[in-house]
Amino acid sequence: MDEAVFIDANVFLEIFLKDSKAEKCKEFLKTLQADNNLAVTTDFIVYTCIIQIENNSKDTGLMKNFLIFLNSLSNLKILRPSIDDIYAAFEFMDKKGMDFDDSLVVSCMLNNGIKEIASFDKHFDKAKDIKRVEI
């Protein structure tokens, strides 16, 4: 694998909630896979997506399809944040004024040597050690 890109929840949710950027997100994930780039997310992001899908559709079939979709991405690695990642997230909250969700993502990224994040969330622009990739 060449480069690692962290995938934020909103990329997955665009696809599964059939929002306006769904096709762009699908193409982005396909391109990552075709270019042999590692896609990384956390179990926290997976749970967040499932909860959002549940809140929007109440469709357990769609929730299951989300997991099937994730499993089909051969280049996807799902991290489990460590206690150290969580503590570091508190530091980002204090220093950058970011919320816990975003701070945990930044912490996991930095602790795993990941420099790029695919996200529509401009709050990540506050973290100068990472680059937000526009889709």
Number of strands: 5
What fold name stands as the CATH topology? Rossmann fold
Element-by-element helix/strand order: EHHEHHEHHEE
What's the mean pLDDT score? Answer: 93
How big a fraction of the residues is strand?
Answer: 5-15%
Low-pLDDT residue intervals, each spanning 5 or more residues: none
For the largest beta-sheet, the strand count, sense and barrel status come to: 5 strands, parallel
* Total separate domains: 1
What's the number of helices? 6
Oligomer: single chain
- CATH class, please? Alpha Beta
Rg (C-alpha, Å): 14 Å
* Major sheet: arrangement of strands: 3-2-1-4-5
Helix content: 55-70%
For the record, the CATH architecture stands as 3-Layer(aba) Sandwich
- CA(first)-CA(last) distance: 21 Å
- Which structural category fits the helices and strands? alpha/beta
The 3D shape can be described as: globular
Q: Please identify which CATH superfamily we are dealing with.
A: 5'-nuclease
